[in-house]
Each structure stands twice: as C-alpha cells, then as structure tokens.
C-alpha cells in the first residue's frame, strides 16, 4: 500500500517502484556522507556557512535525482546538463572548493545508484586525503599572508626588504606598488608565506626599523579569504 502511494503517475506497469525504506536508507546515508564532507571542509578552514551547508545537502540532492532518473536516458542527459550549471556561481572558487563540490556530487551519485558501501568507502578515503593534505598546506595553517608596507618616496623599494624576507619567510612576491598621501609615500603589497607564525611580531618590528615606523599591515591572504 505504501509503495503504491509513492508510485509515479506516469510509471508503466512493468517499472519497479523504489520502496520507501530503500529511499529513506539512501537519503539517510547521503546526508551522513554530506555531513562528513562538510566537517572535512570545515577542519582548519574558514569556508562560508552557505558553502558548508551546500556541501552537506548536495549528496542527498544528487542521490534523489539519480534515483528518480534511474533508467531514463533522456532525464539523465538533462540532469547532467543541469550539473554543468555548477560553474556559474556568483564568485569563482579555488581548486580545493571545486574538488569538494565534485566529491559531494559523486558521493551522492553513487548513493543514488544504490552502492551504499562504495559511497561510504569512497567518502572516507577522500576525506582522509583532504585532511592529510591540509596538514601540509601553509594556507590552512595561517602562514600565507598579505603584507602592506608604507615607505617614504625617497626609499628605493627594489629589494629593500629582501634580507628580512629571507630570514622570516619561505616565499614572497611583490604584488603591487601604489603611491599614497599625494604621492609622498609608497605602499608596497606582498604575498608571502611565513616560516613560523610565532615570529610574526618580530618580523613586523624588524620591518618598522626599515620603513621609518610608517604604517604596516599584515592580514590573511586575500586569495584565502575569498568565499563562494
């Protein structure tokens, strides 16, 4: 009786109806997988809440979609076309964010096809890989910074801070030079990776001795701060 209630009005007599228990099992597993992916993404990262909610719900959405179009080639092609809309987001994301989205999509697809054990195994393996890679990512450890230094106009900025950069930074790059205060000052913008976050204050104190104690600001990398 329950299966008849959920039977599609356009289903033919020879079509198999997905039982309510199987439907709830697949959706439940998909939601657990989504939660695991979202928790993995949130681990030592600062993604927006909307992005984490999307990761948590996406496997269940894909799962239900695949279950509904199972065996219908036309509907499957239309669904694949709809998935391509994922690239048209309000703000471009990083490669890591795109990989997480596709992880959630594939996990939902496998769950929707009924391979629940494979879906769980696949999600656990990929989440473990992401967690391991995060431990070696300087961005996730807060070492990637955007540094802005104000210097007098008579100071030659070409290589003036290289000795300090070598002492405190793994990598650095001068991104922008801008005149400020009616052209009487220069503002240099660097993208850099610190060797040790505990020495950040010592680094800033050393920079102040070189720029005449003018304004200096160090913030989280602008690339890392972007949100979907």
Task: Write a structural description.
52% of the residues lie in helices and 16% in strands. With 228 residues, the chain is an alpha+beta fold. It folds into two domains: 2-135, no CATH class; 144-221, Alpha-Beta Plaits. It has a four-stranded antiparallel beta sheet with strand order 2-3-1-4. A hairpin with a 4-residue loop joins strand 2 and strand 3. Helix 2 (20-42) runs antiparallel to helix 5 (95-112) and helix 5 packs antiparallel against helix 6. The relative contact order is 0.13. The model is unreliable at 224-228 (pLDDT under 50).
The radius of gyration computed from the alpha-carbon positions, rounded to a whole number of angstroms, is: 26 Å
The strand count comes to 4
Record the strand order, biggest sheet.
2-3-1-4
Runs with pLDDT <50, length 5+? 224-228
Q: Which structural class should the secondary elements be placed in?
A: alpha+beta
Query: Main beta sheet, described?
Result: 4 strands, antiparallel
What is the first-to-last residue Cα distance?
A: 45 Å
Q: Strand share of the residues?
A: 15-25%
Instruction: Spell the H/E element sequence.
Output: HHHHHHEHEEHEH
Number of helices: 9
Overall tally of domains: 2
Shape: elongated
Query: Kindly state the mean pLDDT as a whole number?
Result: 78
Name the helicity range.
40-55%
